[in-house]
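Sequence, structure tokens quoted for completeness.
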Amino acid sequence: MAIRTVGNIDKAISGGAMSSIQTVSVSEALVLGLLAQGVNKFFVVLGHGTTDLGEALRHYQDEGLITVTPFRNEIEATHAASALRWVTGEQVVVVTSIGPGALQAAAASLVASSDGLGVWFIFGDETTHDEGDNMQQISGNGQAAYFRMLSVLGSTYLLHTPEALTSALRKGAITTNHPSRQQPFFLLLPINVQPKILENFDLNRLPNALDLTIGMSNIDLIKTTAHSLMSSKNVAIKVGRGAAGCGVELAALAELIDAVLVMSPSSLGIVPSSYERQMGIGGTKGTISGNFAMANAQTLVVAGSRAVCQSDCSRTGYPHVESVINFNTNASDAQHYNNTIALIGDLKQTLVELITTIQDMKTESPETLQSKPSQWLTQCLAKKVEWRARRSEIISRETLDDAVWKRNVLTQPFAISETLDWISANGFKAFFDAGDVQANGFQLADVETEGWYFSESGASYMGFASSAVIAGGLANEKFYGVALTGDGSFMMNPQVLIDAVHTGTKGCIVILDNRRMGAISSLQLDQYGNDFATSDMVAVDYVSMANSFAGVQGIFGGYSAADLRSALHAAGKYDGLSVVHVPIYFGSDPDGGMGSYGRWNVGPWVAEAEKLIAKARI
């Protein structure tokens, strides 16, 4: 009551509304500790291991201090929590018991880990008295088996000793709010520790929200970098999601050093697609223009990228690059390539200083100023024109005859392009699931601004997009999310049809159905000439399925552009969750997808890829 009246714990104590010395259970102290950090959203799948914590959460929700949302699946809850942190910055705690539930949440935490998202996880662990095997513990491995396993996945704390709670809270705050790369934090809360009483506990010991910042890189290295870039030729800047918010500075740098920019799937929007020097996606899937820039660059500038295998073609993407400038906050990522000048520090501050330094150098040396496009830029622009022409050609083939559907159906590029146009026109948020849908999406999308296009390419987790839509109904400022998902990915988490209704979520799931794992089928065909064990002949009436859930609207997306546009329009008008089912072409016609333009160190391509890796100059 005292906290609710004044707004937070500090004000309640300083204003005399409550004493800082309290006798509380560990569960209640934990809730208070999270509140002190501004964390007040809990996505829960409660079980036998979290009954005491659940009771504490009930009381604080009754007082209006927190919101507790029950989910039907731990993977779904984790994806929704990750999406909410990604889109709005709001922090969420995922609560479940140890055992299968915790393992599901831990598996889904790969999204938060790969994409750098701070999410709290509280798992009700086995008892500390070791009075015998607890239900769902890992048998025969002594104590703390889950602690040992989860510690491989990320920062993990086992609250064996109740008095260590403040240390656990502080370490969790640092992990989930790290200034350069947030990560998930796993707090194991033993069943018998939760109700333990902390006598005369001083609430002033609870850590508040942390203000963590990173400064500019070393000034001498910035000057060295400026001199190096002034004499560099054929410069490509690879933009990762760590460059978020730095689009203006990256464009200014590109102009100064005559560079072009190559994007990663999760970095689309940082530099507008329409910007002349932005060449689009580069990598294993890639684009004609993005991969041309990578393949012909002589100097590589890395801006907030981790060099994921598909992003740099398994280290074969830069055959002519001899020197690297790497802007990063992680020392290991900054030194990924050989012959690197590593500028470790805040990217925006470092870029501003570098730009100023280069501008001063150009003022002192007027002969370095260019009056017309260089050969490098001219060549790259020609490839961008070629790519956009090819993209338009593919999208213009609205339908193709499909062997499974036994009729003409929409192509995936066309359906995605239409859906993205609808999303953009209405100010919605787009979430892409793993696989073919994701790859076609980031290859053809024009993304002019940050904050609406989210491609979970880090963990490439099937089922993320549908679950992410739930975040729109739970955000402080609600938003309309659209999941672009394949039939296989949707069936990973279909319980969103229930949870969207009980959370009051407005959004849309667009199911692009080719009755297969299209990305893997395509890979098998490219590598071996046959696809195997990646499809089935089971027809699913997704419209009827969706309409069987009270409050969900199922719509057939049809077989033509007009049908799809009508379905999307109806979805946008509905006050709740809509599911749009779209039959999609799969086959050998090259216009059925956006194609691949790079290399990958997998399957029968390994020998050739590893020869190229061995020859890499960086």
Summary: The chain has a mean pLDDT of 93. The chain has three domains: 19-205, 219-386, 397-600. The two ends are 61 Å apart (CA to CA). Residues 67 and 163 are 26 Å apart (CA to CA).
